[in-house]
């Protein structure tokens, strides 16, 4: 582990404890706790001592542990349907890359002789492939007898 990561791994919790016990914002304890959490997160993001996504997911956990906000309010941004759409898309894209499905699709489209010779046909074929991959399955509706 690099020196900056070691220093950040120790400096972050030290700042959290130091700011938590110093009376910086006595009139607003929730803001004071949030400042302590913010200092930890900033140090860990800058030094990258733990992966940045892990640090980002640690924020709502610490916010609820320090009673800055209730659980529903702290985790509400993760429940947005757009976030779930992006998360699912990234998971599918990563799975396609791991199994080389993206390359296989590109090679199969470009191997068709009618497509491979003109730029406009290549663009159109890639657009159709992308549209096919992004199709949403239709819900199956039960028939009433």
Name a few traits of the molecule.
145 residues; mainly alpha; 8 helices; 2 domains
Question: How does this structure look, described?
Answer:
The protein is mainly α and 145 residues long. The chain has two domains: 3-77, no CATH class; 81-133, no CATH class. It contains eight helices and no strands. The mean pLDDT is 86.
Measured on Cα atoms, how large is the radius of gyration? 24 Å
The first-to-last residue Cα distance is 66 Å
- Number of contiguous helices: 8
Q: Helicity range of the residues?
A: over 70%
Order of helices and strands: HHHHHHHH
Amount of beta strand: under 5%
| Structural class label | mainly alpha
Mean pLDDT: 86
Number of domains: 2
Number of strands: 0
Biggest pleated sheet: none
Poorly predicted regions: none
Shape: elongated
Explain the layout of strands and helices:
Blueprint lengths: L2 H19 L7 H19 L4 H14 L5 H5 L5 H18 L2 H10 L2 H4 L2 H15 L12
Helix pairs in contact: 1-2, 2-3, 6-8
Give a brief rundown of this model.
The chain is mainly alpha-helical. The chain is built from 8 helices and no strands.
């Amino acid at each position: 582990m690099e020196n900056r990561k070691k220093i950040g791994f120790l400096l972050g919790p030290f700042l959290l404890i130091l700011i938590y016990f110093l009376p910086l914002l006595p009139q607003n304890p929730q803001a004071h706790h949030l400042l302590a959490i913010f200092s930890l997160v900033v140090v860990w993001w800058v030094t990258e001592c733990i992966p940045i996504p892990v640090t980002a997911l640690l924020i709502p956990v610490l916010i609820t542990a320090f009673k800055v906000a209730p659980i529903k309010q702290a985790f509400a941004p993760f429940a947005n349907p757009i976030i779930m759409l992006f998360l699912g898309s990234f998971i599918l894209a990563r799975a396609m890359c791991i199994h080389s499905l993206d390359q296989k699709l590109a090679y199969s489209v470009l191997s068709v002789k009618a497509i491979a010779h003109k730029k406009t046909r290549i663009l159109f074929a890639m657009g159709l492939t992308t549209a096919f991959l992004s199709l949403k399955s239709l819900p199956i509706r039960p028939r009433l007898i």
